[in-house]
Amino acid sequence: MRQRWYRDWGLTFRMVLTSFLLFVVYIIFLSLLYAYGVGFLVIAMFAGVFILAQFLFSDRLVLLTTGARIVNEREAPELHEIVSRLCMMANLPKPKIAIVDMAIPNAFATGRSRSKSVVAVTTGLLRTLNKTELEAVIGHELSHIKNRDMAVLTIASFLATIAWFIMRFSLYAGMWGRRRDNSAIIIAIISAVVWFVSFLLIRALSRYREFAADRGSVLITGNPGALKTALLKISGLMSRIPSRDLREVEGMNAFFIIPAISGETIMSLFSTHPPIKKRIEKLDELEKAMEGL
Amino acid sequence: MKSIRSLFSRSKKSEKSLLGILDAVVDMEFYLDLRPSSNAGILVKPLKTHYYRESENIIREMLQLIEDSYKTRSQIEKDSYGYTWILMEDEDFEDLVNAVYMLESVFEDHNLKNQILVGVFRFEGDYRLYWIYSFKKGKFYPFIPEEPSEKKRNTAQELRVANLMEKILPVEKKVEEWFPLWDIPF
Lengths: 293, 186
What we know:
The complex is a heterodimer of chains A (293) and B (186).
Chain A: E1 2-4, H1 9-35, H2 40-66, E2 69-70, H3 77-90, E3 96-100, E4 107-110, E5 118-122, H4 123-128, H5 131-146, H6 149-178, H7 183-221, H8 224-235, H9 246-255, H10 263-269, H11 274-290
Parallel strand pairs in A: 3-5
Antiparallel strand pairs in A: 1-4, 2-3, 4-5
Helix pairs in contact in A: 1-2, 2-6, 3-5, 5-7, 5-8, 6-7, 8-11
Chain B: H1 2-5, H2 12-32, E1 35-44, H3 50-70, E2 73-78, E3 84-89, H4 93-109, E4 116-124, E5 128-134, E6 139-143, E7 145-147, E8 152-153, H5 155-165
Antiparallel strand pairs in B: 1-3, 1-4, 2-3, 4-5, 5-6, 7-8
């Protein structure tokens, strides 16, 4: 369980694959136990142990899969200074800080509790953003820690797993009572549906936590504009504001018969993820609300 | 002021959009600490036709009329792109905006609507902000030059200003149309 700053598909794929495989291994194992006639209570205990292990070690797993390196104060003094200051404002214990050597600007927080957290940023993020924008991004990650999002989402997936199991067990019991032949297929389908629905619910919950973390960042830094420009820079939207002089562009339009490609078309060709747009809209509203508009 | 303005037949839509800058003044000062300056300018793309040169004389006459009536001083300058700036100065911001408005009408009435590109209003505070008004689109966009020699602008602040003012001012939503003017002569 971890929170990412911005969805980039390489990293997302690795993380989703990791957690998916973990989940598959875990389901197969528990199903095997059941098939060999192990009682419900024992299986529930195993499930509990699995969840606990995931809760305890997922942060290290995330750091391993992303190649994040914990840095001390000597290695990254400015980053440490920013995190310390923001933690003081957010009333949080200072987390460990990690850097991922990756050109794509990104950041994430991980860790099961407030005192055992890690905030990681990519080298691309450090290069892309200025100091106030970096503060806004770190404020967002600290808000995830403050809101205990990692724990919340772990518990949510635990509840989803329990729901899945109850469904399976009650179906098994029901089917076997009536001795149906195609019961296994039906059980598999219903289990899959339960799993899928809970997966969607967890995604929705996680999206909601993103918005909450954006708000949290603004509360800590008091600067919705910085978070907005950070998002715009990370997503590449910022570079859409031109630096070419109007008169040059006007001249071109007069010269060519076909007018220069319009902004709308460029936007749809390189359309960005809607979540970023939604988040910026919410930040725009927040910025206005803070000014009493 | 009303009497002269009523001479110019204008569509309701464009009338509203340019004069919106007058409604924005209070909020610009209240929320952003930016006050209107006494300078404004109109960027014109001249034509090399006899008709255009004749029209230019009418425009000069109009500028003189405005100066006589409202004490809005003006001058015409050429820039390095071969464009023409009509520069206007008036301590009364309302008169300044109305002067720009009246000139737009003159251009429109002489079928030179395509030659008049943008109207530019300067605001001052801790930094300098230009509201650039596209006559064609009837929309404003902010421009905050930081280091014109390096073509650097403060996009972060521009986005903030645009967001805060969008309810009062018709702001251009497509940021890729926020074309800068690197050597505004005022």
